[in-house]
Amino acid sequence: MIAQPRAVGEAGTISARVPSLVPKEVKVDKPLTFNGDKKKLQNFLFVMKQYVDTVGLGTGPAACRFVVSYLRDDALTWWRSYSQDSLSIFDNVSLDELLTALESHFSDVDREMKLRAKLFNMRQTGSVAAFTTAFQQVQLELGTARVSDDVAMHLYVHALKPMT
């Protein structure tokens, strides 16, 4: 039987079971923790939104408590400062507000610019398959800020090794 996520009580103890929207026979992996690493922020936020939605935690205090329970190291220190060590903050913050605050504090402000520079400076050094995978990965990381298909094709073709 799969244990259902539970909300954390005032003293850090488990206080209530949260009903799941997932059938009992489906196992949903727990998200990874977040320690403040800027490179892992976007995936952490995405996974948390997906998990909270999948297990039916809603967007209120239970969801926020769940997300906070996955913060470690620098991220947990930030949360302690943000919340001023008060558990009553959960009554005044929504999941969207919490995730936005995390993103605001931990996001790399130059991320998009760095990814675009990486894309423009890529060169094939190994196999075409490996280069293609790396090129596509950068495009995916750019998300909605990715370059147009025409520009991407131009960059890709000109980054390939000359044929010998």
How would you sum up this structure, described in words?
- 51% of the residues lie in helices and 4% in strands.
- The protein is mainly α and 164 residues long.
- It has 2 domains: 6-106, no CATH class; 111-159, no CATH class.
Question: In summary, what is this structure?
Answer:
The protein is mainly alpha-helical and 164 residues long. 51% of the residues lie in helices and 4% in strands. The chain has 2 domains: 6-106, no CATH class; 111-159, no CATH class.
SSE layout and pairings?
Layout: E1 6-8, E2 14-17, H1 41-55, H2 61-68, H3 73-83, H4 95-106, H5 111-121, H6 128-142, H7 149-159
Antiparallel strand pairs: 1-2
Helix pairs in contact: 5-6
Q: Main beta sheet: strand number and arrangement?
A: 2 strands, antiparallel
Mean of residue pLDDT values:
84
Strand ordering within the main sheet: 1-2
Tell me the radius of gyration: 20 Å
The helix count comes to 7
Whole-number total of structural domains: 2
Helix content: 40-55%
Coarse shape: elongated
Q: How many β-strand stretches? A: 2
